[in-house]
Recover the amino acids of this structure.
């Protein structure tokens, strides 16, 4: 059995007010239908139980690219402590620290503090989203994190280490089994394994209620439809319902499921699996009416592969050998087209850095329109952009 998470002691630390989850929405929304994976079942001595789990994972990843993970070793109380810390960080970060730790996405990293003025270092229009992003460097030196959070870095580190080294490792074991590869294949050959956050990062995000000016420019959109570029993304399900996924050719909300981890597959695994795993398109949209006045606190761990990884299908997979690679519009097909044309495909690091450096603002009305970034395909609006020769087409 996998060992459960054991957090460091809170004794002798400053008082941290408990995060109180806001009430779930009562709105009658169209929710995405997602599968649930009970990760503890992977340790079952009953082979039939494990096989069924692998089959469920296979279906979930093929159909949705999104799933709920439960029983992964962290209790609701332990999870809420992390939300309390994230809330504490955003309530207590000083103006001096906001300036000193200001991020610079043009560097290809989101490391540090994001103010609520867009996705550049230079302040743009208000988007109402604040972050603190902890990459490996933020764990190496206390100078890189807000002073208010210093007493709690042991807890943020232990939590991140558990997610990276236990939860994600077990999840990748399950996904390796779906590809019929050795258990440690994705962990050892694909995933960056440095502790505590590999080559990815953990994000404490705070979405403030939309102001009218932002809403009129963005039409209620808070983050554009996109795919994540890493291996797996681990989002803790939160009551303020804003996450949407593209399912059945339309956007559907992801329902609050207390304590569960919402997992989505990144583009690295879509390419590695020859299209058998789907990097699902998702976006962040305005909350339903009854939650619009609330702040949305969110914690996300973005897992990344080795930066030098050349992303090509794992042809040793018996599943790929038997069924071939699956072509559908997406990054797998684009990378394939480039390889076949003899064009250089980006490494994983290049791919993630170019996208971070070129985030488009939801308030950018000059580019977010037909004739600029947007095109109409079969009567639906899509954003079409190109990065390093790779065409990316995403529903608006
Ligand atoms: Fe995402």
């Amino acid at each position: 059995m996998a060992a459960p998470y054991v957090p460091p002691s809170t004794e002798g630390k400053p008082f941290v007010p408990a995060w109180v989850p806001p009430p779930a929405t009562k709105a009658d929304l169209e929710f995405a239908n997602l599968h649930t994976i009970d990760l503890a079942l992977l340790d079952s001595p009953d082979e039939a139980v494990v096989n069924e789990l692998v089959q469920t994972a296979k279906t979930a990843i093929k159909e949705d690219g999104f799933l709920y993970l439960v029983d992964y070793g962290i209790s609701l109380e332990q999870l809420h402590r992390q939300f309390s810390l994230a809330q504490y960080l955003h309530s207590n970060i000083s103006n001096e620290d906001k300036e000193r730790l200001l991020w610079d996405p043009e560097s290809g990293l989101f490391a540090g503090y994001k103010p609520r003025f867009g996705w550049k270092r230079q302040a743009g229009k208000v988007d109402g989203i604040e972050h603190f992003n902890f990459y490996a460097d933020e764990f190496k030196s206390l100078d890189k994190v807000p002073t208010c959070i210093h007493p709690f870095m042991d807890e943020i580190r232990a939590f991140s280490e558990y997610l990276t080294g236990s939860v994600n490792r077990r999840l990748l074991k399950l996904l390796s089994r779906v590809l019929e590869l050795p258990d440690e294949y994705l962990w050892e050959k694909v995933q960056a394994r440095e502790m505590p956050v590999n080559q990815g990062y953990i994000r404490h995000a705070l979405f403030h209620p939309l102001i009218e000016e932002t809403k009129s420019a963005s039409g209620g959109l808070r983050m554009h439809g996109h795919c994540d570029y890493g291996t797996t993304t681990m989002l803790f399900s939160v009551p303020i319902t804003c996450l949407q996924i593209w399912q059945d050719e339309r956007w559907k909300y992801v329902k609050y499921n207390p304590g569960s981890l919402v997992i989505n597959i990144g583009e690295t695994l879509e390419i590695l699996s020859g299209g058998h795993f789907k990097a699902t398109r998702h976006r962040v949209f305005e909350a339903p009416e009854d939650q619009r006045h609330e702040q949305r606190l969110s914690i996300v761990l973005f897992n990344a592969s080795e930066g030098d990884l050349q992303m090509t299908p794992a042809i040793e997979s018996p599943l790929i050998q038997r069924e071939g690679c699956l072509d559908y519009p997406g990054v797998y097909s684009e990378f394939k087209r480039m390889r076949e044309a003899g064009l250089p495909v980006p490494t994983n690091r290049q791919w993630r850095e170019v996208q971070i450096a070129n985030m488009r603002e939801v308030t950018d009305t000059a580019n977010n329109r037909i004739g600029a970034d947007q095109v109409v395909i079969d009567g639906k609006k899509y954003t079409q952009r190109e990065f390093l020769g790779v065409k990316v087409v995403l529903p608006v």
Summary: The mean pLDDT is 96. Residues 35-395 form a domain with the Jelly Rolls fold (CATH 2.60.120.330). The radius of gyration is 20 Å.
